[in-house]
Each structure stands twice: as structure tokens, then as C-alpha cells.
Specification:
The complex is a heterodimer.
Chain A (H helix, E strand, L loop, with lengths): L10 E2 L8 H4 L1 H21 L17 H33 L3 H22 L11 H16 L11 H14 L3 H32 L4 H12 L2 H12 L1 E2 L2 H27 L3 H11 L3 H12 L12 H16 L3 H15 L13 H4 L4 H15 L5 H34 L10 H25 L1 H5 L4
Chain B lengths: L10 E2 L2 H7 L3 H4 L11 E3 L4 E3 L12 E2 L3 H4 L3
Classes of the chains: A mainly alpha, B alpha+beta.
């Protein structure tokens, strides 16, 4: 699978629409896997057991002797965890269409490197050297893929989007449902303001530079809604040229990677509380995976670096509320509205394109359903506990193991970003599209900061308190 | 009513094919995600389209269970 022959179309695959979506889309697999883990965790908890044996993570260490002792004592737990991941991910990806013979060796490599990166992050001097696991995973992955290079078939195991969706569903189990209800409307309001402003700036800047309307819409959605996924969704909805989506993909990737490093760096320089920084990252990053890398790396500084108030969870929670609830879920509506505009206001082509309201559901990021169900289920199942009992009993036995497995899923995701980002293979974006997108980035970042750090500052700073 | 692109030989929407055609897509997204719906590339018009589009150049495809493998080289 080294290249695509885009011109020889003799056959097509049968449609995957309808009920078969339940096993042909990675969103649904994230739900089955994420909710499956949550249900097993709860069943064990209800019977006086815990998932924590298999949810093992490297412990804090200060010398190699301690690290070696940890692995020596916990080898069966790591082996069992690896077996669990391999079994469930192989089953899912095989049904999705990947070959187990390619996925399994790729995932073994991914797990081993993730284990090393996780261990480095647990070194008690890691923060001193800025060795936050999300950033280390990203950098290691990019160095390997761009300087050394790996066989293309290994990409079968580097499924960024799949791992991030599984992680977000698991994250739902650690996020009180009341928090979604309380913070969701503000997230939607803030995200809507920034998304609409960003889209319009990119669109009109692109038009002023002479770019095609459909390319402008594809670029605008990439900057305003949910990055690459939004760009290709809108490209399809408006009937963009074949080369438009790759242009948007390149610009989104470049800016998303820049922002993974810049947003936490600026947040640190300004000493932003983690809740505010997470909201800003959620408003101004371009992809879920990139934003989680930035939010988690900044959240990990809480309690480690003087002057950063809040908790690690606050950064991840406010990011997720802003990005997933505030921005991602609206992609179908953006697609529908732009399809109406494209077919009624823009020059027509002979493809019979017409707006279809059903695409609001087709394009809905279904993994969000799993995220909300996981949150509602754990909140309901633990409602009878007082806060003291919740922290003493529920957190260590039920919530913490799910959170540890979530952390693993995110590390797989962050490392996969690096391993699949090959800069020399990206399509050339061109000066004008890059300029139009960059103008939107500037507006997005500034507006997102003002809303997060001033207008709604107390809301985000006090999240989970 | 004209048949939709979904079953046209010019229309390619296999997720693996889309991921191979749009380099960089997998860095932050996926060909297997819900947001993409069933969109695909029309090799006749060189457009990226919804599967429910149609046009006068429609040619019925031969459907094969291994089409996903065949469409990527």
C-alpha cells in the first residue's frame, strides 16, 4: 500500500451506511471498547474487586534500580495489559478492514515505545527537563518518521483517531455528568463565537486572495470546527476539488503541531490556571488529538511548577468540554448549512449535489455519545456516595484504573501522531491558502484567549471545584 | 431518478483508499470516522463528493468483496 492509484476505478466497496456503521466506523468501536471497559470496571467494583491490577502504569522513580524493580515485580500485569489491548484493538481494526498481520506487530512496537515514554515521564526530574509524556511521544514519533522512516504498512497500528476516541470515551467515566450539564452551555457559547469568527475570517481572506469558494469553505471549517475531520467533511458536503482537501490537511497539520507546543508554552509564561489554559487550548487548537496533547502536558505541570494553579484534570476536562461538546458535535450542521449555500449560491457543477438534512446525523461524531453515556453511568452508579466516601472508595478502586487506561490510550495516540506525520509527503499548501488559514489562526488564538482568560475566566478557573 | 455515485465505477470511497489518496489524513483524522460519512473521490470529475450525488456520466460498478484491497496499490 505505498501509493494511491486515483485514476483506475473499476470497482467500489459496498456502502457502509445504515446499521453497518455500528461496526464499520471507528467512532462506534471507540464506544464499544470504551463503554465495555467502563462496564467491566464497574462490575468488578460492585463485587469488591478492581480493574487496577491490569491498569498498571509505571511508578514514580528516581533511579534505574527503582524502575527495574517496578518492572520486575509487575511483569505479569504488563503482559496481561498488553494482551488485553492487542485482543480488543486487533478485533476492532480487523473488522474495520486492517490486516492483523500488520496491526499486531505495529501495535507491539507502539506499546513498547509508549512504555518507555511513560516511564520517562514518571522520572522525578522529568518536569525539570520538560519531559512531559505527550510532548516526548510526539517528538520521538516525528523524529522517527521523518529522519529514520518506518515501513508504511506499520501505519495499520498507528491509529491516532481511533485511540483518541477510545481515550475520550474513557475520559467520560472520570468526568461528572453534572459538570457537562453545568459547563456545556458556556463551552457551546464560547466555541460558537470563536468558530464562526474564525470561519468567516478564513473564508473572506481566502476570497480576497482569489481562492475558490469551496476551497475557502474547506479551509475555514478546518480552522473553525474540528481540524482535518471537519475539512474533509465540508469538502464532501460542498463538492470540493480533489486537491482542496489535501491543501487543508497540510495547513491544519502544520498549525496544529505548532500549537501543541506554543499554547502550553504561552500559558506557562502567563501562569494561567489549568482550567483556563484547557479552555483556551480547546478553543484554539485544531484537532482533538493535538489539543489533548497540549492540554495534558500543561495540566501535568500543576503542582509541579510554581505559579500554575489548578489540577491536571481541570486542563483535560475544560479542553474536552470546549473541543468535543463546544465544537466537534456541530460538524453535521456546518456541513448541512454549507451544502445549502454551495448548491443555492455558488456556481453549480453537474454532480446533482443537494443539501440533505440527514447528514447532520451521518456526520455526527458518534464517539461523543459514548463519552456522555460513560459520564452519566458512573455519575448515576456512584450517586449514593458522599464526597468523602467517593474520594476514599470509588476513586482508587473504580475511577483511577479507568483513568490509567485512558492515559495509555492517549499516549498511543500522541505517539501515533508523530509516527504518521511525514512532512515531506504532505501536499504543498500554496502561499495563498496558508496565508488565509494563518489569518484565521491569529483571530482564533486571540479571541479564544480573551474569552477563556477574561470573559469566562472564573467559570473555567473554578471548573470541578 | 438517477442512480447515486455510491454505486458508480468512477466513485471511490473505501476508507483505506481515501487515506492513501489524502496523505496526512491519518495524522489527525481517519478514513473510518463518522464525520466523513460515505463521501468519496469522483475520478471522472476529480471532485470529492457525497455518496448521494449523481450525474449523467454514471457507470454501474462491479462490486467485489475485495474491492477495498484492489482499489489501493
Amino acid at each position: 500500500m505505498s501509493s494511491a492509484d486515483v485514476t483506475s476505478g473499476a470497482v467500489v466497496r459496498p456502502s457502509t451506511s445504515g446499521w453497518s456503521e455500528l461496526w464499520r466506523k471507528d467512532d462506534w468501536w471507540a464506544i464499544w471498547i470504551g463503554l465495555g471497559i467502563v462496564l467491566v470496571a464497574y462490575a468488578l467494583f460492585a463485587n469488591g474487586e478492581s480493574l487496577k491490577w491490569i491498569a498498571v502504569t509505571p511508578a514514580k522513580w528516581s533511579n534505574f534500580g527503582q524502575l527495574a524493580a517496578h518492572f520486575s515485580a509487575n511483569l505479569p500485569r504488563y503482559a496481561a495489559q498488553l494482551g488485553l489491548w492487542v485482543a480488543i484493538f486487533t478485533a476492532a481494526t480487523t473488522i474495520l478492514g486492517h490486516r492483523p498481520a500488520q496491526f499486531i506487530p505495529a501495535f507491539l512496537l507502539l506499546y513498547l515505545v509508549s512504555l518507555v515514554i511513560f516511564s520517562v515521564g514518571q522520572w522525578d526530574q522529568a518536569n525539570k527537563y520538560n519531559l512531559e509524556p505527550p510532548l516526548v511521544a510526539l517528538l520521538v514519533g516525528m523524529l522517527v518518521s521523518n529522519l529514520i522512516g518506518l515501513p508504511r504498512w506499520l501505519d495499520a497500528g498507528f491509529r491516532v483517531e481511533f485511540y483518541v476516541k477510545v481515550g475520550i470515551v474513557l475520559l467520560g467515566a472520570t468526568l461528572p455528568f453534572t459538570l457537562i450539564v453545568w459547563a456545556g452551555p458556556i463551552a457551546i457559547l464560547q466555541a460558537s463565537i470563536v468558530s464562526i469568527a474564525t470561519f468567516l475570517v478564513i473564508f473572506w481572506t481566502g476570497r480576497a486572495l482569489g481562492l475558490d469558494k469551496r476551497l475557502c469553505a474547506t479551509l475555514g471549517a478546518g480552522g473553525a470546527v474540528c481540524g482535518v475531520s471537519a475539512a474533509i467533511a465540508i469538502a464532501g458536503a460542498v463538492g470540493a476539488k480533489k486537491e482542496d482537501a489535501p491543501i487543508a490537511i497540510t495547513t491544519v497539520i502544520l498549525w496544529a503541531i505548532v500549537m501543541i507546543f506554543v499554547l502550553p508554552l504561552v500559558s506557562r509564561a502567563l501562569g494561567l490556571p489549568t482550567g483556563i489554559a484547557g479552555a483556551w487550548i480547546g478553543t484554539s487548537e485544531f484537532a482533538d488529538a493535538a489539543g489533548l496533547a497540549a492540554a495534558q502536558s500543561y495540566g501535568d505541570l500543576a503542582g509541579q511548577v510554581p505559579g500554575i494553579a489548578g489540577t491536571s484534570d481541570q486542563a483535560v476536562f475544560s479542553f474536552t468540554l470546549m473541543k468535543v461538546v463546544g465544537r466537534d458535535v456541530w460538524i453535521g450542521i456546518w456541513a448541512f448549512v454549507l451544502a445549502i449555500i454551495a448548491t443555492t449560491r455558488w456556481e453549480s457543477n453537474e454532480t446533482g449535489q443537494r443539501p440533505n438534512a440527514a447528514q447532520i446525523w451521518w456526520r455526527f461524531p458518534k464517539f461523543v455519545i459514548g463519552f456522555v453515556i460513560a459520564s452519566a453511568f458512573i455519575t448515576w452508579a456512584t450517586a449514593q456516595y458522599s464526597l468523602a466516601d467517593y474520594n476514599k472508595t470509588v476513586v482508587p478502586v473504580l475511577v483511577a484504573p479507568v483513568k490509567d487506561l485512558r492515559t495509555w490510550a492517549f499516549i498511543f495516540c500522541f505517539l501515533s501522531i508523530g509516527l504518521t506525520t511525514r512532512f515531506r509527503e504532505l501536499a504543498s499548501a500554496g502561499r495563498k491558502p496558508f496565508l488565509a488559514f494563518s489569518t484565521g489562526v491569529a483571530v482564533n488564538v486571540i479571541l479564544g484567549f480573551i474569552l477563556s482568560a477574561y470573559v469566562f475566566a472564573s467559570h473555567w478557573a473554578n471548573l470541578t471545584r | 431518478m438517477l442512480p447515486h455515485c455510491e454505486t458508480c465505477r468512477h466513485f471511490r470511497n473505501d476508507p483505506a483508499y481515501i487515506e492513501a489518496a489524502f496523505r496526512g489524513l491519518t495524522s489527525f483524522s481517519s478514513g473510518y470516522g463518522s464525520a466523513r460519512a460515505e463521501d468519496g473521490l469522483c475520478t471522472f470529475h476529480d471532485l470529492y463528493l457525497s455518496a448521494d450525488c449523481h450525474c449523467p456520466h454514471y457507470v454501474r460498478a462491479k462490486v467485489s468483496p475485495t474491492a477495498g484491497e484492489l482499489s489501493i496499490r
